[in-house]
Amino acid sequence: MATNAKNRVLARGAERKEIPNADELHRLLAYNPETGILNWRPRTVNEFASLRHFQAWKAATHNPEAGRPVFKKNGCRTYKQLCIAGTKYLLHRLIWTMFKGLIPDGSWVDHIDQDKWNNRIENLGLCDASQSCWNRGKQKSRKKGLPRGVGTIKDSGFTATISVRGKRIYLGFFQTPEEAGKAYEEAAAKYHQEFACLD
To answer: 19-23 long-range contacts, Cβ below 8 Å, gap at least 24?
Structure first.
């Protein structure tokens, strides 16, 4: 049977393990649809290979909320992660699997409002890699004060460009950043559609 690559996550080293199926996730975890938070369900010692394994699980899950936030070195927050049987998974992928099933090949689970910690099921949607990039929030690499997609030509004016599936499209030369920004917004609505992000 073919392996669904998007239902795999990288464990330590090169080992990869599939996301547990929905039944197993529901057995281990309880989901609050109002908050998007997962909590560990109670378990008994009989579910573990030994008392030592059970005690280790109890110590690791003393906080009923399952998973933890992860931050980059620069302080920016990334997706929440959860460890099951020694393997780390991204919470939003687990939640999608619990309620929507397998993640189709070539698809990503996207946070619609761009908040990586908002794992309410209505805030999760499927997209491809390009659409996920389109829905990113403001990037630090952008020049301060300029709208998205707008660049400058020294002492001349402003340009607008948009990226569409790996191809950069030149939208024109403009006298003001507002004009260039408007051109980008119109192009984003055309090419990125519901994944357009303008902030």
So the answer is: 19/89, 19/93, 19/94, 19/97, 19/103, 20/84, 20/94, 20/97, 21/97, 22/97, 22/98, 22/99, 22/101
Whether the predicted model's global pTM rises above the 0.85 cut: no
Average pLDDT for the chain: 79
Residue 23's H or E segment, with its range, is: helix 22-28
pLDDT attached to residue 35: 94
Domain ranges in the chain are 5-127, 150-195
Q: How many CB atoms lie within 10 A of CB 49?
A: 7
Is the domain covering 5-127 a CATH 3.90.75.20 domain?
yes
The neighbouring-strand residues paired with 79 are: none
